[in-house]
Amino acid sequence: MPRSANVLTPLWKSIAATLRSAIADGQYPEGSRLPTEADLAARFGVNRHTVRHALATLIEDGLVHSRRGSGTFVLSKPLDYPLSERVRFHRNLRDAGRLPGREILAIEVRTATEAEARRLSMTPGDEICVAHTLSFADHTPIALAESHFPEARHPGFADALRSSRSVTDALATVGVADYLRTETRLSATIANATQASHLRLPEGAPLLLTESRSESDGVPVEWGQTWFASDRVTLTFDFQRDQLP
Amino acid sequence: MPRSANVLTPLWKSIAATLRSAIADGQYPEGSRLPTEADLAARFGVNRHTVRHALATLIEDGLVHSRRGSGTFVLSKPLDYPLSERVRFHRNLRDAGRLPGREILAIEVRTATEAEARRLSMTPGDEICVAHTLSFADHTPIALAESHFPEARHPGFADALRSSRSVTDALATVGVADYLRTETRLSATIANATQASHLRLPEGAPLLLTESRSESDGVPVEWGQTWFASDRVTLTFDFQRDQLP
């Protein structure tokens, strides 16, 4: 962008602002096609070069993308999902204006392997409960999770989860009223066939993987892995907010 | 693992522990091949089934991987890199027992686009300094970064960076003695050809992308994106450590 653009009347800028508001207002919803350059030029009474300049700023901001020969499309805005020591899936989604949903795909009770036992401060062979869940925002899958719970330490947890379908409620049933996330590890991975199918993504799509442990009074109550569809969710962490007393 | 494994003498367990120590001690360094199953069976005086059981626990823990027909290899352990409000690359790596290295690939001064200006609280067209850097752990590339600095607000920053090659020193030269990261956004992406070449990874490898802004007295001093080679770095965040007073 040349410096002179700030001196002349920035027509492209007001067009970009108008399109930005129209997208924000839902006039052009996610996935929809914007009017053609020719239509926009006619509507705003400018030449196509000016329209292209305005569209370029929307592309740079990740609001739209242009597909050669088919036009300019409104991108889905990834959901901002705050990382915090409390697991607040439903609240996070409602705060973002999305409809939260969670489906429990499977609940199994089996003996812990050495690595699983270590993560839950148990003995290998102790019973653990493993839950596989799929989370949704506005009916679109956003995350696949595998959570491990120390069944031997909290007998009845799996049954409580099977009937309540809520981890928080099931933990409360076995006497764990409150728990906090202690450590979270973040990495990136590639969707395998199963993950791709659950998350409705192409195989090989990038996934953000979090591994975290939750504790109650210093004792592990959950260890889990969550795979987020990276084009639909951005994890955020605000250092200052969380460090204020 | 059947429950009875805990009742009988767990030979496989002591073999796994021995191999684990040998790997930790550097007796089998990263990338090296472990002795064959037959060699290990002879050395420990057990059958190959027991050796296979021991190796399976090392595979489960991500310490080694098995390549059909070629043997079992020691995996590079990803570097644990703590996310914090202070950018402490050299210290983080030294704490992890790795040799830190950073190479500045390019430094350019140009006018800010609308999006760049917004992120740095500037006016589009204002001068910014953009630095491209590559970070190393023990001479292996681990992260590629693109950092934006408000040159117009801190004239001379780019020249200071060109001569000192250190962001902290260059900021100090223009009067920014201290700065903190305010917000970090995390997502996953796939390495393009340029990123793959710099990071010595195959194209399409998963990368962990962080976007963060640093401020000094409430004014942005840097906005940057960092692409981490996900198989070499795990970002960690300990809620409890950072929340204690």
TrEMBL record, chains A, B:
CDD domains, A to Z: WHTH_GntR (cd07377)
Q: Does the keyword tRNA processing apply?
A: no
Q: Which Pfam families match?
A: GntR, UTRA
Name the Gene Ontology molecular function terms of this record: DNA binding; DNA-binding transcription factor activity
- Spell out the InterPro entries in the cross-references: Bact_HTH_transcr_reg, Chorismate_lyase_/UTRA_dom_sf, CP_lyase_PhnF, Tscrpt_reg_HTH_GntR, UTRA, WH-like_DNA-bd_sf, WH_DNA-bd_sf
Q: Which stretches make up the HTH gntR-type domain?
A: 9-77
Q: Which UniProt keywords apply?
A: DNA-binding, Transcription, Transcription regulation
Query: Which GO terms of type biological process are on file?
Result: negative regulation of DNA-templated transcription
Has UniProt tagged this entry with the keyword Transcription regulation? yes
NCBIfam families under this entry?
C_P_lyase_phnF
- Entries under PANTHER family matching the protein: MANNOSYL-D-GLYCERATE TRANSPORT/METABOLISM SYSTEM REPRESSOR MNGR-RELATED, MANNOSYL-D-GLYCERATE TRANSPORT_METABOLISM SYSTEM REPRESSOR MNGR-RELATED
Protein name as catalogued = GntR family transcriptional regulator
What species is given as this protein's source? Aliiruegeria haliotis
